[in-house]
Amino acid sequence: MMENPDSLHRPVPEALLQQAQSETRGRLKIFFGAAPGVGKTYSMLRAAHERKAEGVDVVVGIIETHKREETEALVRDLEVLPRKEIEYKGHILQEMDIDAILVRKPQLVLVDELAHTNAPGSRHPKRYQDIEEILAKGIDVYTSMNVQHLESLNDVVAQITRVRVKETVPDSILAKAEIALVDLGPDELISRLKEGKVYVPEQAQKAIQHFFAPGNLTALRELALRTTAQRVDEQMLSYMQAHAIKGPWPAGDRVMVCVCDSEISPKLLRSAKRSAERLNAPWVAVYIETEAHARLSDAGRERVNDALEMAERLGGEVVRLNGVDISDEIIKYALQNNVTRIVLGLSRVSPLRERLFGNVVTKIIRKVDGIDIMVVSGEPHSYDRSISSKTKKPSLVRRTYWPYIASSSLVVLVTIVNNFLNENFGYKNILMLYLVPVLISAVSYGLWPSLISAFLSVVFYKLFFGEEIMEMDLPTPGDFVSMLLFLFVAIMASDLASRISMQAQIATRRERMTNALYDFSRKLAGIGSINDLLQTVSYNIANVTKSKVCLLLPLNGRLQGKMSSPADFQLTDGELAAAQWSFDNGKPAGIDTETLPSMDKLFMPLNTAAGTVGVIAILPEEDSQVLERDGRRQLNSLVDQAAIAIERMEYSINAAKAQLRKLSDQMHGIGTEPPTN
């Protein structure tokens, strides 16, 4: 069936929705440069003066003049808001005062250094998060940024300059902004350095020899130009789609990157992001959860979670899949989702291990056809721990020796039992009995304890029963073959049993999560009063997440505690202020978020299509998994269902009140109607 030709020239709904959303927010303009000293702040101030001359209300939120006379002269004629003082370790630090800006509510605010990290104790860890809050209130923002601070270019800049930039800005921020390129050639920039217009003479000379070397500046300038051109092309395409302008559309490319617990994952994500931008294509980060995931150390789990969070910050879609063979699952997903390019990491392993077990990259290359494969080589100890947007305590690898002790004890127990059976039971049958501890260890503790059990079984059989076999009869080649077959069968059985056990655990965990969501939705569907609804929501979320919960609903725009589980769980004034911020902005706040992460509670807004209907405050218990990735996904599902149920109940109450008013008006009209003859 042919598509209607008129539909080919209609506006794209996604583009129209994006345009409508941008009209309610403030506009962000980034003065973008290749390096410090090209004149970003100066150009931003000149542009601000032009807007002021047009009658726009302009204020300075924060500007770093670096004692440059021409920059300070431009600041003098503008209104400068006072900075907020924050005490940290006996020192007074100055940061931008967000509340002062929101109270002043200008049309345009100038905020220098987009990639800046705020002082500890600030509302947000990063300045770009401050700007996001200002934009959400409908205030336009001018800011500045160098190309080396862009998250997806972090590896590239490090290779060029041999300096790893720690302060980075997500690409999603740049995607929402208008880019004004401030360009200056390497020779002119070096001249400014020598004249002392960027750094003091001693620092300038060191900078020229290192970061500001002519080759580095040329490469950074090219990156800045390319990035700006890509952003302009995206804006043009979005405009064409929103206005149904005929033109060349993307050919349907899709990039997929496979992440794992390896230290190469951040490099893979950045490579996938750059590849997707060059192809003008969407990209997805996929993690295959096999039985090995359950055996990962805390450090390995942290690397996986950080990589998936980094993918989201870079603007990619995140998908978690379950499977047995990683290569098969990758190919299956790629074929089902029209993936045209797969980005894989090649970790450096020993040739012997690669020959024995192979590697995922080789398997995929052999099996796949019609999909481009991009292989990124890994470097040992290259994990960049700055990829996490939150400050995390260093995770220690948790090692427990109980499974190995228990597995060894089972082998000893079977040996004792075999010692009483050896006269009449037969030595080959005794050897088979050693399979019992191997299988029990595999099901109960996993692969490695069961392998230890298998090797100990062979050793114990040889030590305790080998001499008696020698006394009875000379060992035959068949005896050695039996022992080798036993070892092979034990290894295969332990591997199979551990796989089945791990898959059963994963399935049980998923089933438990699904049942919890189903029971919660079923209970919500049968509730008829608002108090019963609030009690059910608070109790069930507290029970499922193993947390203390306080449900807050608005009254005249201010939140009030309506229901808690347990009943004595209350919030302080500061916590109520954090909940109010979450309600006003429709974003999570508190622990494990980007807003007030130092708090011990999590504040989740109850968002619906019509707006935010309330906030849930959550205090995780010690054994709660609500801050883990799976636990957070379950919490998000519960919160979404609760928000819809509360919104539906409010609609029902409002409809009932409207119907009552209508009946009252009708009865009042009947009572006052004049009598007729």
Give descriptors for this structure.
677 residues; alpha/beta; Rossmann fold; 4 domains; 6-stranded parallel sheet; 5-stranded parallel sheet; 23 helices; 18 strands; disordered N terminus
Number of strands: 18
Give the strand order of the largest sheet, numbering strands 1, 2, ... along the chain: 3-2-6-7-1-8
Q: What is the CA–CA distance across the termini? A: 70 Å
Q: Helix segment count? A: 23
What CATH first level of the largest domain would be assigned? Alpha Beta
Which secondary-structure class do the elements indicate? alpha/beta
Domain module count = 4
Q: What Rg is obtained from the alpha carbons, in whole angstroms?
A: 32 Å
Low-confidence stretches: 1-9, 246-251, 380-399, 469-475
State the share of residues found in helices, binned by percent.
40-55%
CATH superfamily of the largest domain: P-loop containing nucleotide triphosphate hydrolases
The biggest sheet amounts to:
6 strands, parallel
Question: Secondary-structure blueprint of this entry?
Answer:
Blueprint: H1 13-24, E1 28-33, H2 40-53, E2 58-62, H3 69-76, E3 79-80, E4 84-88, E5 91-95, H4 98-104, E6 108-111, H5 127-136, E7 140-146, H6 154-161, H7 171-175, E8 178-181, H8 186-194, H9 201-209, H10 214-242, E9 255-258, H11 265-279, E10 283-289, H12 298-313, E11 317-322, H13 326-336, E12 341-346, H14 351-357, H15 360-367, E13 372-377, H16 402-425, H17 427-433, H18 435-445, H19 447-472, H20 477-525, H21 530-545, E14 547-555, E15 558-565, H22 573-585, E16 589-590, E17 602-608, E18 611-620, H23 629-672
